[in-house]
Design brief:
This protein has about 210 residues and is α/β, with parallel strands linked by helices. Helices cover about 20% and strands about 45% of the residues. It contains five helices and 15 strands. The strands form two sheets. Strands 2, 3, 4, 5, 6, 7, 8, 9 and 10 form a nine-stranded mixed sheet that branches. Strands 1-14-11-13-12-15 form a six-stranded mixed β-barrel. A hairpin with a 6-residue loop joins strand 3 and strand 4. The two termini are about 25 Å apart.
Length: about 210
């Protein structure tokens, strides 16, 4: 009976994967967003962020710049700077990274940095110390406005999402973010990606009830 139930569950999962309710999940590694002022302080007055790889979200890219993030217990080398520049600098890491740095880091949506801890960013002998901006990114789904009805979601809605990796896993407390300029992708960090056996192209769907 257990074998029959297991087979039935796999069939249901495969059917769901083929419906128009699915979307791709992406694993987002540690990265830095810099303000224009901090970019110049770290990389020189003429420094610019040059796209090396464009990301799934329109207009977003990985730049040529890699920096070091320094905490009281350890550091993270070769952290990519994403572009374009932002109004305020921000560093996004995983909870594992947080332990390496020795800084208790809150889980926040990108851009929600009030009351968050600061951290030092270094580029050789140059450094900038942020007074806020270190976060663990809250898992979320970017939803293009035209896909919102298809998925049956509202902006800022909290949903459960099943990610169909090698070790399928349901993630709770996932925030929906809807915007005309988004492409529809779920973003998880590498701690979460490892937990569900993520690989590129992994599909996900919202679990109701």
């Amino acid at each position: 009976m257990k074998n029959i139930d297991a087979i039935a569950d796999k069939v249901v999962d495969r059917i769901k994967e083929k419906t128009d309710q699915t979307f791709e999940a992406e694993a987002s590694g540690r990265h830095i967003h810099l303000s224009e002022g901090d970019l110049k302080a770290l990389c020189g007055e003429d420094a610019e962020l040059i796209p090396v790889k464009y990301l799934s979200q329109p207009g977003q890219f990985a730049s040529q710049i890699r920096l070091t993030v320094v905490g009281p217990k350890g550091h993270l080398n070769n952290v990519v700077v994403l572009g374009p520049t932002r109004k305020e600098s921000q560093v996004e890491i995983s909870l594992t990274d947080s332990n390496v740095l020795g800084i208790k880091t809150p889980v926040r949506l990108s851009g929600d940095i009030e009351g968050t801890p600061g951290v030092m960013i270094m580029n050789g002998s140059k450094s900038v110390t942020l007074d806020k901006g270190l976060i663990v990114a809250k898992r979320h789904i970017h939803v293009k406005t035209s896909d919102a009805q298809r998925l049956g979601v509202d902006d800022k809605e909290i949903v459960k999402v099943k990610v169909m990796g090698q070790r399928p896993l349901i993630f709770d407390d996932c925030v929906v973010r809807i915007n005309d300029n988004f492409a529809t992708y779920m973003h998880i960090d590498y701690d979460e990606a490892n937990a569900c056996g993520f690989s590129k192209g992994t599909q996900a769907y919202i679990v109701r009830g």
